[in-house]
Design brief:
The complex is a heterodimer of chains A (about 400) and B (about 180).
Chain A lengths: L11 E8 L10 H16 L8 E5 L3 H4 L4 H5 L10 E4 L5 H14 L5 E9 L29 H15 L3 H14 L15 H6 L2 E4 L1 E2 L8 E10 H7 L4 E10 L13 H14 L4 H4 L2 E3 L5 H10 L8 H6 L16 H4 L4 H17 L13 E8 L4 E8 L1
Parallel strand pairs in A: 2-3, 2-4, 9-10
Antiparallel strand pairs in A: 1-7, 1-8, 4-7, 5-6, 8-11, 10-11
Chain B lengths: L36 H12 L3 E5 L6 E2 L5 E2 L4 E2 L2 E5 L2 E12 L5 E13 L13 E7 L3 H5 L7 E6 L12 E6 L3
Parallel strand pairs in B: 8-10
Antiparallel strand pairs in B: 1-2, 1-5, 3-4, 6-7, 6-9, 7-8, 9-10
The chains are: A alpha/beta (about 400), B mainly beta (about 180).
């Protein structure tokens, strides 16, 4: 067993994954969404709930679904009744934190088979607008009195990145175009736009310059689930387990006005932790496909740099050269990402993990990247440019 | 490509008109009453007097504006208070066309992060005393062309009798035209 600087007892594999549709508004309750995804993941693994020892649930602010203690509430649909069940929450980074938490349940030897479920129903927070819920992220004393909209902070980060790296909006829009086109191959996708152009993005409604409507992922309802198992169990369950090779997560200070927004330190540190565990010292060469978090188009670029998949300020160049397309040398977000598949917050992050699972197994259908996939990576980010979560998976 | 296992995501797309919804206000008329805490309490009292106050850590040399009572890096109490100038440079700025509720604004507003000057101290890009605030005197073109980056700005204070001990005692940071 490889064991680099971190102590764990068991290797852990993903053996099944499931998703609901992602849509701006779904009829199903949060519990029902969780059930649909969880059941599909169990079916794919050929397991029933009786086979599951522990359940890990992930969901972002309670305020979206409008139900307090969402973990306890979701437990029923997520298969958590009468089992050791926990809900984890690190804002937008939650989706990738769910399999990380599930990993330590198994790696520690505590549980052999874990069901990990992520759900978000943003449409419940209907009035005046879903964005209003984000009001409670800001500092109540020095920021909230200025009446901020959450997009302000992303616009500030995007503009700082553009300024420092000399990036043009046209280059950033290419990410949105790529992902919304990629999404057409994804059966859950909310925003498949096969004919979208850079011009469409640049002409979309200006919200907070430099952020325009098509630079942003939509608000969504949806759920995702994966099943994790110890090495012994995984080999019994499937011939093609996908191993979790490395995990990492870190948090930066909430005082975002005191640090440089041009480079995501919170991702770099999380990636270093995961790479150390996975034995990766040259991610650009050793990662075959990646699903970095892309709630905004510039975020894909920013996170590629934080992950060491591109040098600082290099991600827009790789994008322009086509390197990040599905048939490129470093396919990025072949699923269509949050920009294309949709952004039910925690479920969107776990959707990325499911995509890497399918890519590594060669089961991604028309989304399957051209190059052979031995190692893939999924990453999410959350809060006021604070939380980074990274998972490395492979054969 | 062959070998794809079709996933069959389920769920029902919902159109507003088709089904009933049950609507509730968040929690009736409930409102939060936030305390300022020690550090921000003194910071707000300073604003009322037209001063921007911060704290510093002698261990690592960091200056904290907004202030904290602890250095979260050295994990010890800060070593004291200092006064930042009410001017500095814009490190990032944007132009907002929407309100907090995502309604279109009649006129866009510029907001940004201002890195504040502290006499006798220099700060790099990685950690600096800085606050978010409105930027006034900047045109849409100043923001879109990025000319606003690095621009010197100075606090435009409300008149002393209008100040309440709030971040809004500063109306905005005004671009200093040379």
């Amino acid at each position: 067993m490889t064991n680099r600087n971190l102590n764990f007892k068991h290797r852990v594999a993903v053996v099944g994954a499931g998703l609901t549709l992602f849509r701006s508004r779904m009829l199903e309750t949060p519990q029902e969404l969780a059930w649909l995804a969880a059941k599909q993941a169990l079916d794919e693994a050929g397991l029933t709930l009786k086979d599951i020892d522990c359940v890990v649930i992930g969901s972002a602010p309670d305020a979206f679904d409008g139900v307090h203690m969402k973990g306890e509430y979701l437990a029923e649909g997520a298969g958590g009744i009468h089992k050791p069940t926990i809900r984890v929450f690190v804002g937008g980074a939650t989706g990738v934190f769910v399999p990380i938490a599930a990993w330590w349940h198994v790696a520690s030897g505590l549980c052999k088979r874990v069901l990990a479920v992520a759900e978000e129903k943003m449409s419940h927070a209907a009035k005046p607008h879903t964005q209003y819920v984000f009001r409670y992220i800001w500092d109540p004393v020095v920021e909230k009195p200025l009446n901020p909209n959450l997009i302000w902070i992303f616009a500030m980060e995007m503009h700082r990145y553009m300024h420092k790296c000399g990036v043009k909006k046209e280059d950033i829009a290419l990410v949105s175009v790529k992902n919304k086109r990629n999404a057409c191959g994804h059966p859950s996708a909310q925003l498949c736009m096969p004919n979208i152009t850079v011009d469409d993005v640049l002409k979309s409604e200006v919200l907070v310059w430099p952020v325009q409507l098509l630079d942003i992922s939509p608000t969504s309802d949806g759920a995702a689930a994966v099943v994790l198992a110890s090495e012994e169990e995984a080999r019994r369950i499937t011939d093609t387990p996908v191993w979790i090779k490395g995990i990492g997560w870190t948090l930066d200070t909430t005082h975002w006005t005191n640090r440089d927004l041009a480079y995501p330190e919170y991702v770099r540190r999380a990636a270093e932790m995961a790479y150390r565990m996975a034995g990766i010292d040259n991610p650009r060469k050793q990662i075959d496909v990646a699903e970095p978090y892309d709630p905004f188009d510039y975020k894909e670029l920013h996170h590629m740099e934080g992950l060491g998949l591109a040098k600082k300020c290099e991600a827009p160049i790789l994008t322009r050269e086509g390197v990040t397309q599905r048939d490129g040398d470093l396919p990025i977000n072949p699923s269509g990402g949050l920009l294309g598949v949709g952004n039910p917050i925690a479920a969107a992050g776990l959707m990325k993990v499911a995509e890497i699972f399918w890519q590594v197994r060669g089961e991604a259908g028309e989304r399957q990247v051209k190059k052979p996939v031995y190692t893939g990576l999924a990453q999410a980010w959350g809060d006021l440019m604070q939380a980074g979560t990274v998972i490395v998976m492979g054969i | 490509m062959s070998g794809g296992k079709p996933i069959n995501p389920r769920g029902t797309k919902y159109e507003k008109v088709e089904f009933p919804v049950f609507e509730f206000p968040v929690v009736g008329k409930a409102r939060y009453s936030y305390t300022t805490g020690e550090a921000l309490g003194r910071f707000l009292a300073g604003l009322k007097e037209g001063k921007i106050l911060g704290t510093y850590c002698a261990g690592c040399g960091r200056v904290f504006v907004p202030p904290r009572i602890y250095c979260s890096y050295c994990f010890k109490e800060v070593d004291g208070w200092l006064e930042a100038k009410d001017e500095g440079v814009v490190v990032t700025a944007v132009m907002s066309y929407i309100s907090a509720t995502r309604a279109r604004l009649e006129r866009p507003v510029a907001v940004g992060v201002i890195k504040l000057d502290v006499p006798g101290r220099q700060f790099d890009d990685h950690f600096f005393p800085g606050i978010m605030h409105y930027i006034c005197g900047a045109t849409e073109d100043d923001v879109k062309s990025m000319r606003i980056f690095g621009a010197r700005v100075k606090a435009k204070w409300k008149r002393p009798e209008q100040r309440t001990g709030s971040i809004t005692d500063i109306e905005c940071f005004e671009v200093v035209r040379p």
